[in-house]
Amino acid sequence: MRNVELLPSILSADFMKLGEQLEILANSGVKSIHFDVMDGHFVPNISFGAPVLKCISHKYGMLNDVHLMITDPIKYVKDFAEAGADIITFHYEAVKDHDERVKLIKEIRSLGCKVGVSIKPATSVYELTDILAGVDVVLVMSVEPGFGGQKFIPDSLEKIAILRGIREKEQLDYKIEVDGGINVANIKEVIKVGADMLVAGSYVFKDLSKVKEILEEVEKYDA
After folding, report:
1. For 106, which DSSP code?
2. Residue 191 belongs to a domain with what CATH number?
3. Rounded to whole angstroms, what are the CA distances from 74 to 70, 84, 85, 104, 204?
4. Known active-site residue 179
5. What's the CA gap between 116 and 143, in Å, rounded?
6. Is the dihedral angle over the CA atoms 82, 84, 16, 151 positive or is it negative?
7. Fewest Cβ atoms nearer than 10 Å: which of 13, 33, 41, 214?
8. What is the separation of C-alpha 126 from the centre of its chain, rounded to a whole number of angstroms?
9. Residue 215: CB atoms within 10 Å
């Protein structure tokens, strides 16, 4: 049995009720939350930064999965690590040079965090082959990064399957995370092709009373 995990993205939370909503998630059995960081440059939207993470970090017993959709991530990883990040994921497209990517991976790990790398829908999985051995998570964006509430891009399924195949062939141990348009209609298929971590924002936060049902749905296909 695989241990597939649901990670609610607080980008879709009601910040007037953030503490209350995080408590509901924790009490429902959610183990980790997803923290989308946007700078208005790498993606055309602005969200929140390390101070917000620090305010909520580990207060509800959940791990912090930080997704940096920002330019020059190496400038900010220390801030997020000190604020309580458990996983820090950077975008492949935001770091143009291979040596700089390797440097960033080493920096994140030296800060005591697990390392993730993410790719936009237009980026080929094969662009990652030279760094896959050094990361803990590969995040497939199944929508264009920058906005919540978008529809899942079907071509993402092939990317997930390819990543699973590479992992098995090369005997690597990274987890495959998927972010964008996750809902009851595609959960089964996304898990079936190889996803280990499912990020969901609006699907979870539109009705928090159904979080336990969503978790049960994930566990149903956790094989």
Report:
1. H
2. 3.20.20.70
3. 10, 16, 14, 6, 31
4. yes
5. 18
6. positive
7. 41
8. 19
9. 18
Of 39, 65, 136, 179, catalytic: 179
Residue type at position 169: K
How far, rounded to the nearest angstrom, does the alpha carbon of residue 63 sit from its chain's CA centroid? 12
Q: How many domains does the chain have?
A: 1
pLDDT tens readout for residues 175-195: 999 999 999 889 999 999 999
Residue 36 falls in the annotated catalytic set: yes
Domain span holding position 216: 5-220
The residue annotated as part of the active site, out of 36, 39, 65, 196, is: 36
pTM of the model: 0.96
Question: Looking at beta carbons, which pairs linking 150-156 to residues 24 or more positions away fall under 8 Å?
Answer: 150/180, 150/181, 151/181, 152/180, 152/181, 152/182, 152/183, 152/186, 153/121, 153/180, 153/181, 155/121, 156/121, 156/180
Rounded to whole angstroms, how far apart are CA atoms 101 and 99? 5
Q: pLDDT tens across 118-175, in order? A: 999 999 999 999 999 999 999 999 999 876 667 899 999 999 999 999 999 999 999 9
8-state DSSP, 39: B
pLDDT score of 148: 63
Cα diameter, the chain: 47
Q: Are 176 and 147 in contact (CB under 8 A)?
A: no
